[in-house]
Amino acid sequence: AQSVTQLGSHVSVSEGALVLLRCNYSSSVPPYLFWYVQYPNQGLQLLLKYTTGATLVKGINGFEAEFKKSETSFHLTKPSAHMSDAAEYFCAVSLTSGNTPLVFGKGTRLSVIA
Amino acid sequence: EAGVTQFPSHSVIEKGQTVTLRCDPISGHDNLYWYRRVMGKEIKFLLHFVKESKQDESGMPNNRFLAERTGGTYSTLKVQPAELEDSGVYFCASSQDFWFSAGTPGSYGYTFGSGTRLTVV
Fold first, then answer.
1. Considering CB atoms only, which of B6, B45, B97 is closest to A98?
2. CA angle, B96 then B48 then B40, to 5°
3. I want to staple B59 with a disulfide (CB 3.0 to 4.6 A). Which of A41, A92, B17, B46 is the partner?
4. How far apart are CA B93 and CA A9, in angstroms?
5. pLDDT by residue (tens digit) across A26-46?
C-alpha cells in the first residue's frame, strides 16, 4: 500500500523568502510522485511530477522538487515566494504515471505575508 | 483542447435527497477517476473507469454511491440518498495511456476538473 505524509497543514512565509513544503511517501514499488496546487475556487493543477530519470524536477511557476529515495522524500521548494503562490499544495504518489489511482497527502496551505 | 469539465460546480441538497454529479473527461481519454475531499481530510480515491468498465471501485464508501460511464465518454456519480457526511468536494480526473515502442505502458498524466462542492444539509 502507498501513503503520503505532508508535514505541516499550514505554512506561512514572507514574500521573497524560501518556500519549503515537505512530503514523505511510502511505496512498495518505485513510485511516481506528483505535486498539485489548488488555488481558491479552482481545480487541481499539476505543478510537477517525477517519473524516472533526473531526481531534481522543475515545474511551473518556479517550483522544483527533488526525489530522494534514501529519505523517501519529495519536498517542494521555491527560492522566492510571491503573493500569488498562496494556495493549497498536495503531494501524491502513484504506481504509474497516469493509469492507476493517485494517493494524496492531506495538503499544506501556504500563506505568503507581504 | 478542452479540459475536464465537471458540473454542477456547487450543489446544496437536503439529507435524503438524490444528487447526480457529472464529469466530462478530455476527449479520447480512456481513464476516468473520481476522488472526494471531505473537509479537513485528504483527497481520497473513489473509483477508476477504463473506457466504460469499472477498473477499481475500492474507494466507493457504500452502496449509496453509484457511478456510471456509458459509452466510455462522460461519467455520472449519483448519491442516493445523500447523508450529511457526503458533503465535500468531488473531483474528476482523466488520463490517456500510450505505449512506448518497447511495449511498456506509459501515460501523459492526470488532468483534473475544477470539482463539485456538495453540501448536504
1. B97
2. 110
3. B46
4. 24
5. 987 778 899 999 998 788 999
Contact criterion met (CB below 8 Å) for B90 and B115: yes
Q: How far is CA A53 from the centre of its chain?
A: 18
Has residue A3 got a pLDDT over 60?
yes
3-state secondary structure A31-56: CEEEEEEECCCCCEEEEEEECCCCCE
- Bridge partners of B120, per DSSP, are B13
Question: C-alpha grid cell for residue B72?
Answer: 466510455
* CA–CA gap between residue A4 and residue A7 (Å, rounded): 10
Q: Nine-digit cell at A74?
A: 519529495
- CA–CA gap between residue B120 and residue B81 (Å, rounded): 10
CA-closest candidate to residue B91, choices B109, B73, B114: B114
Taking only residues 86 to 105 of chain B, the set having a beta carbon closer than 8 angstroms to any beta carbon of chain A reads 91, 93, 95-97, 105
Q: What pLDDT, in 10s, does the model give residues A69-95?
A: 999 999 999 999 999 999 999 999 988
Grid cell digits, residue A47: 505543478
Query: Residue A31's Cα: distance from chain center in Å?
Result: 14
Please state the length of chain B.
121
